Amino acid sequence: MAAAAAASPADKERFICIYPAYLNNKKTIAEGRRIPIDKAVENPTSTEIQDVCAAVGFNVLLEKNKMYPREWNRDVQYRGRVRIQLKQDDGNPCLPQFPTRKSVMLYAAETIPKLKTRTQKMGGSDQSLQQGEGGKKDGHIT
After folding, report:
1. CA separation for the pair 103, 47 (Å, rounded)
2. Using 50, 70 and 90 to split pLDDT, how confident is the model at 55?
3. Which SS3 state, helix, strand or coil, does residue 58 take?
4. Average pLDDT over residues 90-114
5. Which alpha helices (H) appear in the chain, and where do they start and end?
6. Are the C-beta atoms of residues 21 and 66 closer than 8 Å to each other?
7. Ranges of Polar residues compositional bias (predicted)?
8. What are phi and psi of 55, to 5 degrees?
9. For residue 18, what is the DSSP state?
């Protein structure tokens, strides 16, 4: 144990872990959600968490084959764990706006719905309808 305590916060083993279940509004607290349900996201993936954390400037590691121990569903969708360097060698936060792991989780949950992959999925049907109508209009003009 003494070796683990002496390890630098910059070591990859000392990065904080965030599993998608921590941010999932479909989970109860007993199932692993760690933020309020009104701030949580519907079925986040480890890749989405990695994207938003890397975009803000964190040192991020994605571990695709790791699983949250309380996750009973073994689908690929629920796999993955994101490791984030929260603190520097001197113990200060890497990014001052994120002093705690909870602040990182809340930021990720707030930002994931704004990702292009999420917004395109929501508006996909509208776009196809608009394209179809555009095709009809072009047909009348020619």
Report:
1. 19
2. very high
3. coil
4. 92
5. 2-6, 46-56, 101-111, 116-141
6. no
7. 120-131
8. -65, -30
9. E
Q: Judging by beta carbons within 10 Å of its beta carbon (0-12, 13-18, 19+), is residue 83 exposed, middle or buried?
A: buried
Q: How many CA atoms lie within 13 A of 102 on its CB side?
A: 5
d(CA 115, CA 112): 5
φ/ψ of 56, rounded to 5, equals -85, -10
Place of tokens 């196809």: 128
pLDDT at position 27, please?
93
What tokens appear for 74 in the block? 């073994």
Q: For 10, how many CA atoms within 13 A lie in the half-sphere containing its CB?
A: 5
CA 77 distance to own-chain centroid: 12
Q: What is the pLDDT of residues 85-100, one digit of tens each?
A: 999 888 899 999 999 9
Residue 46 · residue 21 · CB < 8 Å: no
Residues 104, 98: contact at Cβ < 8 Å? yes
